[in-house]
Amino acid sequence: MPVASPADTVLPEMHGLLEMRGIDKSFPGVHALSVVDLSLKRGEVLALLGENGAGKSTLIKILGGAQRPDAGAIEIDGHAVDIHSPSDAIAAGIGIIYQEFNLVPALTVWENLFLGRERTTAGFVQRTAERQCAKKLFEKIGAEVPLDARCGQLSVAQQQIVEIAKALSQDARLIVMDEPSAALTPQEVDRLFTIIGDLKARGIGVVYISHRLEEIFKIADRVMFLRDGEQVGEALIDELTPQSMIEKMVGRTIDQEFPKHQHEVGEPRLKIQGLCRADHVQEISFEVRRGEVLGITGLVGAGRTELVRLIFGADVPDTGTIELDGHRLKIHDPRDAIRAGICLLTEDRKHQGLVLGLSVRENFGLPNLGELSQRGFVDRRRESEEFGKYVESLRIKIPNQEQLAKNLSGGNQQKVVLAKWLERNADVVMFDEPTRGIDVGTKYEIYLLINELAKQGKAIVMISSELPEVLGMSDRILVMHEGRVTGEIEDVTSATQEQVMQLAIG
């Protein structure tokens, strides 16, 4: 099995590699793509930008053979190709790296690379030959990954490198990366960019999808914009500014990226004292005041998520106390926390924030059944009426309230989670990575909502890995490292990202 032929030839010029013309796709109640054209040259990084629901995922699923277009044509190197399945896409030299990796956790790195394409002799897999080929692949992309480790034991960054190597092992001439940096540390993102630069030098085209605009300026050559399923423009990266990018994506002017509003901060509402759980959370004590946004940040594994899970009752602490408005709480599970007036928007909205197989209306009603039921039966009319208010106020894009949660974009899924907790009217609202994987327009709306909740006197806890977001939206910041608080920043307006990072590395 040959190893990525494009890697052996450095092309000095960019040549036409991919042409998608007139791509059109509709689903029941939704026109997902309306006559979209996309072109990609050899050795080019094309950033594909747009709000959640703009049609980006549908477009790359069509390119990857996961969905069929209703109309349109695709050409590779000037030759028309029919892509009816993922195997057709692979044969055409197209590698798709989705947000959710297609790796088998129980298999080793090299076994995943050649899964379904095993080299065999007399029915036996040539294990030594495959392993040696895998070693050469990782050497070519300049990355070290333990070949015999099971993929389930790798970090997210390592799994991503395995996906890139798998695409190259399939002779990929172009690679699509969908939100590749969403769960990476800054150091891992830098490493990813180095690998992408190496791919460019070998003439491999890259389609890069991300909501992090600062990354686009570092890595992209050209940007294409989608909005509501339509292509609304493209430009060279040198012709754009962050503000012009945002306006092109959302179709309106956004005055500032972080619209933090100043308001009065009152007395303490949530008080945490001596919270511990094994090595994950160690002797954590802090207060959150009425109308305050407390930002909590730190590197991956710092214990941030573990901390809010303890407060919400998802995990049981070894020691420590939780008080709300001066009253000590006994929280044994999330139901106790919800009754007490504490809610948590989880980091993983797909698996912990929503029941994907239920409708958005049913998801909205789940934590609110007590208020939306009569004599043990759900009042569906009232449930629909109450949810309808949030569909309008939060601008949730759905064809109807019976739409399954799994079929929504990430931003709209987050809005459904927000709606169900807003209906609870909780006193303490904890956001764990509230804008991860969400477009800039929806981010702005969530920031405005955080401001409004704080203005109402609620205590807000916001966990975020994005330092500009923490600095832009917090009244006060706690920095964690290896389960402990390593610093507190009270004068946020004067703080810098370097100062926060120094505390985050312990």
Question: How are the elements arranged and paired?
Answer:
Elements: E1 16-27, E2 30-41, E3 45-49, H1 56-63, E4 71-76, E5 79-81, H2 86-91, E6 94-97, H3 109-113, E7 120-121, E8 124-125, H4 127-140, H5 156-169, E9 174-178, H6 186-201, E10 205-209, H7 213-219, E11 222-227, E12 230-236, H8 242-250, E13 268-277, E14 281-289, E15 293-298, H9 304-312, E16 319-324, E17 327-328, H10 334-340, E18 342-345, H11 349-353, H12 360-365, E19 373-374, E20 377-378, H13 380-393, H14 410-424, E21 428-432, H15 440-455, E22 459-463, H16 467-473, E23 476-481, E24 484-489, H17 497-504
Parallel strand pairs: 3-10, 3-11, 6-9, 9-10, 15-22, 15-23, 18-21, 21-22
Antiparallel strand pairs: 1-2, 1-4, 4-5, 7-8, 11-12, 13-14, 13-16, 16-17, 19-20, 23-24
Helix pairs in contact: 13-14
Explain briefly what this protein structure is:
With 506 residues, the protein is α/β, with parallel strands linked by helices.
What can you tell me about this protein's structure?
With 506 residues, this protein is α/β, with parallel strands linked by helices. Helix 13 crosses helix 14. It has two domains: 5-250, 3-Layer(aba) Sandwich (Rossmann fold); 268-341 and 426-504, Rossmann fold. It is globular. The chain contains 17 helices and 24 strands. The strands form six sheets. A six-stranded mixed sheet has the order 6-9-10-3-11-12, sandwiched between helices. A six-stranded mixed sheet has the order 18-21-22-15-23-24, sandwiched between helices. It has a four-stranded antiparallel sheet with strand order 2-1-4-5, with helices on one face.
